[in-house]
Structures are given as C-alpha cells and as structure tokens.
Design a protein that fits this description.
With 436 residues, the protein is α/β, with parallel strands linked by helices. It has a single domain, classed as Purple Acid Phosphatase, chain A, domain 2, CATH 3.60.21. Helix content is 28%, strand content 22%. It contains 13 helices and 17 strands. Strands 1, 2, 4, 14, 15, 16 and 17 form a 7-stranded mixed sheet that branches. Strands 7-8-9-10-11-13-12 form a 7-stranded mixed sheet, covered by helices on one side. It has a 3-stranded mixed sheet with strand order 3-5-6. Helix 3 runs parallel beside helix 5 and helix 11 packs across helix 12. The radius of gyration is 22 Å and the shape is globular.
Length: 436
C-alpha cells in the first residue's frame, strides 16, 4: 500500500505530538524516581582488583550507573529523575580544614593521623571513578541530584572537646562485651569540613548542571541544589541539602520554595532517619553539637523547615546502614513520607562464611520508586533492585537469610522482606496539589 506525502507528514506530526506529550508529563502517568544509596564501598580505592580485592568493585559501580542510564525516559525506560543521597566515595584527608580551624575547632590528640595513601586514593582513583559513573548518567540528559555525605567532605577529625576515653569503654559494654551505650563524652565526637572535592565533581557551574534548565538554584557551590522535573501530569520540585543543614542552608531552601509555591516537593539529604526510623543523628557524629552555628539536629530541621512547608511530601536519606521509613503529619495535617536506605554494608557477593559479618560492598542494591498517578489515590511502589544480581529483592528467596541478621534481626523474614518491597498510598496528594 502506497502512503502519500501528506499521510507521512501526518504520521510524523502525530508522532511528534505524542513525544511532546510524554515529555510534558501528559502521557507518563506511571514513572520512576531512582534513589542511589551510599556507593562509597564500591568506589573505595582499596576495594579493587588492583589492591588484590576479590571482586571488581569499580565494575559494580559502573554497572549500577549504566543500568540507571539505560532505563531513563530518554532511552525508553520510565526513570524521570535520579537522586543520590551521598557518600559517593569513601576516603577523606584526616585533619581540620581551614574554615573550621579559623572558628577555633581543633582535633583531639587521638584523632586519625594524615594518611597520604588515602589522599592519593581519593584523587587518583575514587573521584575519577565517580566522574566516570556520573558521566554515564549525565549523557542521558536526565535531571538528577547529588548531595554530600560525611565521606564526601575533604577533612575528618575527632573534636578536641570530646576526646576518646578508652579506659572507660567498659562502662558502655553489656555482659557479652559489646558496646551498647554510646556516650560522646566517652567514645568521642567526629566532625567533617571542606567540600572542594565534592565541588570538583558536582559544582553548580560544572558540566553536569551549568545551563541546565531543570537545575534552578544552588547554594554553597552546589553542595545544596534545586531541580524541577515534569512527570505524571505534575511539575515536581526537588531539594538536595547538606547533612544536618544549618540556618543558612534552610534559608536558601525556603527562598526556593517561596519561588515555587504549591509544587509537590521532595527533599534528599544524607542523614535524616536512623535504622529504627527515628529522626536522630548518630551520637558520635552530631554536628549540631560540635558546630551549632552551622548545623541543626534532624528533629530541628523537621520542626523548623519541613513540617511548616506543606508542599514537602517526601524526604529521602541514607547514611545509616539498613533501611527504615516513617510517616508523620506536618503542621497542616498532611502526610510527609520519610524513607531511608543504605546498603553499603552488604557483601553477600563476597561472603564465604554466612555467620561472619560480610565485607562491606553493597552488592549493587538501589531503590526504584514507581509512581502510579493513574489511580484516584496515587500510589508509590517502592522496589529494591540489585544491578549485580539483576533481580529485585522479592525475587531472591534467600534475601532475608542474606541480610536480615545484620540489618534488622528483630524482624521476621516476612517483615524484613517488606522493608524493601512496599507501597505507599499518597492519601492527600490530590487534595494538596492541583495539577500544575
């Protein structure tokens, strides 16, 4: 059958219209937001074949980034946005950065000493590997965000006001000799500073984000950033924040929200929920206690920023090894879904003895959050996928056997499996957000 030129033109116009509709969020009622948990152990320079490590960790990281790129919307997949919750790489230089030193912070006598091998490993291997991975994602053009985790700062030290008292460690142990009570006046308090390394990859004026129309704002050179993306008939706002953000960061974030009123908003930050689902920072890494002028406790961030901004409906985080979630009403009586996932301690791919703690690696696990906006009550199907095993968590019968003992031993197998395979009904989403 012959097709006329007019028919060809008509087909092309219609095809262009469908493509435009999908790009404008009209036809993509089911879409996915991908969450990259802490990748530090895959990127670690000492976890490589060249260091006699038994598995190709760099290859595992690149495999994960390639999977995400291959499943973006521009390549026929349904991923519309990607967010990394930090700890991209592993090592930092030991010592106090100049900015903190100028404010009078000093390291305790027993702080880690400088390690030139770590410094070389960071700059010669870990940062270049991170760039390789994120280049793969950036080439697709998909909007994405990366926030700094505590391992992505330049410097790391133990604060001089909280020195370790090893002669008192027995006060913290149970009858089996395990440390079960964490007192920063005994175990010490760590702090981090400097973001030159992070900005060398994820700067607001770097190639990933400069002149991108979806990258709408930044603060502190890109350590905090704002993105917008269109999906499911809605425009979404995403804010990536430094961990335990201070007033300056939250003031910037408030300005971004005020300039984008009424848009459903998601926050990513490295540290927000504990493994038990509490809004609490680690007792030995409480930056709000070490440096209160520049950091706030996570509960303060909830009360002073998240709960009072009704358009924030979700908070994503990592940092604490395992997974947890909670839902709370904000000041307006609307739901805020808080979800944490960090698989850096998983090492089934390396384990020879199932009773020994696994060698930390991650096994390539990440989170895929599928939004279904076709329903009267929108639904998020949260799935956990390993790019190493090429399977979802629910497809592995031994999943709880592999990981439960080290992450949530208090749960049944069924309960543990449900931590990585669950659905969320966005009960008040339609009420809060008219299509924008």
């Amino acid at each position: 059958m012959k097709i006329s030129i007019a028919q060809v033109i008509s087909i092309l116009v219609f095809s262009t219209f469908l493509t435009a509709c999908k790009k404008d969020g009209v036809d993509d009622q089911i879409f996915t937001i991908a969450v990259i948990p802490d990748t530090q152990n895959m990127v670690d320079f000492s976890h490589q074949n060249s260091e006699n490590y038994p598995i190709d960790s760099a290859g595992m990281f690149i495999q994960q980034m390639q999977y995400l790129a291959d499943n973006t919307n521009v390549r026929g997949g349904d991923i519309e946005f990607v967010t990394s919750v930090g700890d991209v790489w592993q090592h930092r230089e030991n010592g106090v950065d100049p900015a903190h030193a100028n404010r009078g912070l000093t390291a305790a006598d027993d702080s880690p000493k400088k390690n030139s091998k770590n410094k070389n490993g960071i700059h010669d291997f870990e940062i270049p590997l991170a760039k390789r991975g994120y280049n793969i994602l950036a080439e697709t053009g998909i909007p994405f965000s990366v926030v700094p985790g505590n391992h992505d700062y330049d410097w790391y030290w133990r604060d001089s006001r909280f020195p370790r008292q090893r002669d008192r460690f027995d006060e913290l142990r149970d009858e089996r000799g395990r440390i079960v009570r964490f007192d920063p006046t005994i175990i010490g308090m760590t702090h981090v500073g400097g973001l030159d390394n992070f900005r060398s990859v994820f700067s607001n004026i770097g190639p990933y984000f400069k002149n991108k129309n979806w990258y709408i704002s930044s603060y502190n050179g890109g350590a905090n950033s704002a993105q917008v993306f269109q999906a499911g008939g809605y425009k979404f706002l995403h804010l990536g924040l430094e961990m335990q953000s201070g007033d300056d960061v939250l003031n910037w974030a408030q300005e971004v929200i005020d300039a984008n009123i009424g848009i459903p908003t998601i926050i990513s930050t490295h540290d927000f929920l504990t493994t038990d689902g509490e809004r609490k920072q680690r007792i030995n890494a409480d930056y709000s206690r070490v440096d209160p002028g520049y950091h706030k406790a996570t509960e303060e961030i909830w009360e002073e920023f998240i709960a009072i901004n009704d358009q924030i409906f979700m908070v994503l985080s990592g940092h604490n090894h395992a997974q947890s979630r909670r839902t709370d009403d904000n000041s307006f009586g609307h739901k805020v879904y808080q979800i944490m996932a960090d698989y850096q301690d998983r090492g089934q791919s390396l384990r020879s003895d199932p009773d020994k703690f696994p060698i930390p690696l991650s096994d390539g696990w990440l989170r895929l959050m599928e939004f279904n906006m076709e329903k009267d009550i929108p639904l998020i199907n949260v799935r956990t996928y390993s790019t190493y095993y090429k399977k979802f968590s629910y497809e592995i019968p031994e999943y709880a056997l592999w990981y439960k003992k080290w992450e949530h031993p208090e749960l049944t197998d069924e309960e543990f499996n449900a931590m990585d395979h669950f659905s969320i009904e966005l009960l008040d989403f339609r009420e809060r957000f008219n299509k924008n």
